[in-house]
């Protein structure tokens, strides 16, 4: 379940608002979205994957919220950890390269 959005890291790109399939986040006037409907989270990790600055932390516990402190999560290197473990940046670059240079011309 989504547990944390770091306001210090957030660059207000609203990617999390756009990719969340269950509309958990709410865009705000000051730019930093809020976790408005935490209980609707499906623990799909899409927001963590798409956040470009690792400002989000989703726990693997889908059924219940777990209180976390940003300092602890940061110290343990957990912000954006799903994105890192998935090597998402490398995959996105590889996808872009294959789009630029298709294996065969259609
Ligand atoms: S983990 Fe999935 S459902 Fe939960 S807030 Fe992120 S994008 Fe939305
Ligand atoms: S995707 Fe990350 S940087 Fe962008 S608005 Fe959401 S939390 Fe902030």
Automatic annotation (TrEMBL):
InterPro entries recorded: 4Fe4S_Fe-S-bd, 4Fe4S_Fe_S_CS, Fe-S_Ferredoxin
Presence of the UniProt keyword Acetylation in the record: no
Presence of keyword 4Fe-4S: yes
Superkingdom in the source lineage: Bacteria
Protein keywords: 4Fe-4S, Iron, Iron-sulfur, Metal-binding
Pfam families (UniProt xref): Fer4
Domain 4Fe-4S ferredoxin-type, residue spans: 1-30, 31-61
PANTHER family: 4FE-4S FERREDOXIN-TYPE DOMAIN-CONTAINING PROTEIN, ADENYLYLSULFATE REDUCTASE, BETA SUBUNIT
Name recorded for this polypeptide: Ferredoxin family protein
Lineage: Bacteria, Bacillati, Bacillota, Bacilli, Bacillales
């Amino acid at each position: 379940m989504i547990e944390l959005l770091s306001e210090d890291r957030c660059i207000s790109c609203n990617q999390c608002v756009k990719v969340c399939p269950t509309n958990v986040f709410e865009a705000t006037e000051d730019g930093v979205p809020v976790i408005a409907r935490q209980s609707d989270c499906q623990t799909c990790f899409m927001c963590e994957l798409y956040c470009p600055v690792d400002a989000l932390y989703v726990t693997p516990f889908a059924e219940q919220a777990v209180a976390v402190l940003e300092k602890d999560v940061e110290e343990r290197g957990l912000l954006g950890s799903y994105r890192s473990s998935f090597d998402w940046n490398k995959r996105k670059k590889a996808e872009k390269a294959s789009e630029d240079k298709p294996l065969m011309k259609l």
